[in-house]
Design a protein that fits this description.
Number of helices: 4
Helix content: 40-55%
Structural class: mainly alpha
Number of strands: 0
Length: 107
């Protein structure tokens, strides 16, 4: 998993949307995500076009990279459905164990 933020000395961090929103990485479509990353490399909108080494140019390229990552994450990784009663620590493994426990309780 890659989490990144881009910062310059005097500026505020570029917000990483992955931190602010919960994604269900277990249900991600990784094969198509990787395929789309390869496809988008040739797209004019996201191609690397750094002509000079300056803070503004680096910031611009970082924003393009962030847009690409967000676009593809939104497309291939579903969001977790959170509610007031959601237990963030609950997992599929616990779900299976709970089913087994209730099965043995009934006996």
């Amino acid at each position: 998993m890659i989490f990144f933020s881009v910062a310059r000395e005097s500026d505020v961090l570029v917000e990483n949307p992955i931190y602010s929103c919960q994604y269900n990485f277990e249900k991600a479509d990784w094969k198509n995500l990787i395929k789309d990353i390869s496809t988008e490399q040739n797209n004019e909108e996201f191609s690397w076009s750094l002509k000079e080494l300056s803070a503004e140019a680096l910031e611009s390229e970082a924003e393009k990279l962030q847009k690409l990552v967000v676009k593809l994450v939104e497309k291939h990784i579903p969001r977790k459905k959170l509610s007031e009663k959601s237990k963030l620590w609950w997992s599929d493994e616990l779900k299976i164990l709970r089913k087994e426990m209730t099965k043995y309780r009934r006996k």
